[in-house]
Amino acid sequence: MTGRTGKGSAAVEDYTKADDADLLMASGQRQQAAFAELVNRYHRPVYRLVWRMTGGHADSEDIAQEAFLKLWRDPSQVREAKALKGWLMRVASNAVIDRSRKPAHADIDAAVEVSDPAARTDHPLDRAEATALVDRGIAALPDRQRLALSLVYFEGLSNIEAAEAMEVSVEAVESLLARAKRGLKQALADRWRDLLDGLA
Amino acid sequence: MTTGSGEESELRRILALATAAEPPAGAADRLMARLAAVETTAQVVPFRPRATRRKSWFAYAAAVPLAASLALGIYLGAMGKLDTLLPAAITGDLAMSFDADADLTGVGEAEAYAEEHT
């Protein structure tokens, strides 16, 4: 762990200004307030990733929680505090991939009540239809491609950070992204222009 | 034909249409509550060795006659007081006439033997 030591108790109480290294160290000392600040910082992106990876499955919250619980059990697993976000993303995405081998994702189809918008090319798309269409296209990508796409385009990680999170080379991430883009474009080929030209 | 950056721009516009998922209300609170549950369930049970009864000193009393018996045997053997009871192979004339200077290997006789047969 790369945290600093020797802070007074008054400084430790104000965790909102502490950096990740200090928060990890305090979490290792079972300071729930410090861990709450980590949750405050990273729960949302982790949940978003899980949601994207599961296609909006109802278990998204549980899976995101598992990643944080794993961190809480042993914060020293994160060797470099600056890699914390990537570590959480990796743990969460591994959990998703493990679970995806069991049940099929179905919630995304039920989340938005539209009849298959890709099949109806004769009318302009409204926002809900466009969203459902794009969500479906992303959900149809293979796990690794969807993960790379989510990390880089939705969570704003650089290719290098995504490679670290996925434990692959940067070239592998670039390859996954290229295939993901190609796959998404093929999946949305019929409505690609409509999606770009604007919504009804 | 679109350029690479044009394709990139198109992709970003398409992805901007995707659902921006947000954690359900209270998700962080539920996580923190689960944290507390983990804390209470993950208690380590300390190892305590099983209590054993201390041995009575009577257990050591049996060693006393054994030690006395051994000491008496050594004394009697050294003084030769029990030789009459031992086998002749140990106490007989052959055993008693042992000469430490005698050459039991036969090497010393090799020279005489060689002279006789040359």
What are the salient characteristics of this protein?
heterodimer, A: 200 residues, mainly alpha, Rna Polymerase Sigma Factor, Chain: A, Arc Repressor Mutant, subunit A, 2 domains, 11 helices, 0% strand, disordered N terminus, B: 118 residues, 7 helices, elongated
Describe the fold and architecture:
The complex is a heterodimer of chains A (200) and B (118). Chain A is mainly alpha-helical. Chain A folds into two domains: 14-104, RNA polymerase sigma factor, region 2, helix turn helix motif (Rna Polymerase Sigma Factor, Chain: A), CATH 1.10.1740.10; 114-200, Winged helix-like DNA-binding domain superfamily/Winged helix DNA-binding domain (Arc Repressor Mutant, subunit A, Orthogonal Bundle), CATH 1.10.10. Chain A has eleven helices and no strands. In chain A, helix 8 (143-154) crosses helix 9, helix 8 crosses helix 10 (170-187) and helix 9 (159-166) crosses helix 10 (170-187). Chain A is elongated. The mean pLDDT of chain B is 78. The radius of gyration of chain B is 49 Å and the shape is elongated. Chain B has seven helices and no strands. The relative contact order of chain B is 0.03. The chains are: A mainly alpha (200), B mainly alpha (118). The A-B interface holds A 30, 32, 35-36, 39-40, 43-44, 47-48, 51-52, 56, 60-61, 64-65, 68-69, 72-73, 111, 127, 130-131, 133-135, 138, 149, 153-154, 181, 184-185, 188, 192, 195-196 and B 7, 10-15, 17-24, 27-28, 30-32, 34-36, 38-39, 42.
Q: What's the quick description here?
A:
Chain A has 200 residues and is mainly α.
Assembly state here?
A: heterodimer
The global form of chain B is: elongated
User: N- to C-terminal separation of chain A?
Assistant: 52 Å
Largest sheet of chain A: none
Backbone structural class of chain B: mainly alpha
Largest sheet of chain B: none
CATH architecture of the largest domain in chain A: Orthogonal Bundle
What's the SSE pattern of chain A? HHHHHHHHHHH
The helix-strand sequence of chain B is HHHHHHH
Specify the number of helices of chain A. Answer: 11
Just give the CATH class of the largest domain in chain A: Mainly Alpha
Instruction: Report strand % of chain A.
Output: under 5%
Q: Please give the radius of gyration of chain B in angstroms.
A: 49 Å
Say how many strands of chain A there are. 0
Distinct helical segment count of chain B: 7
Beta-strand content bin of chain B = under 5%
Roughly what is the average pLDDT of chain A, rounded to an integer? Answer: 82
Kindly report the CATH topology of the largest domain in chain A: Rna Polymerase Sigma Factor, Chain: A
Percent helix among the residues of chain A?
55-70%
| Computed Rg of chain A | 20 Å
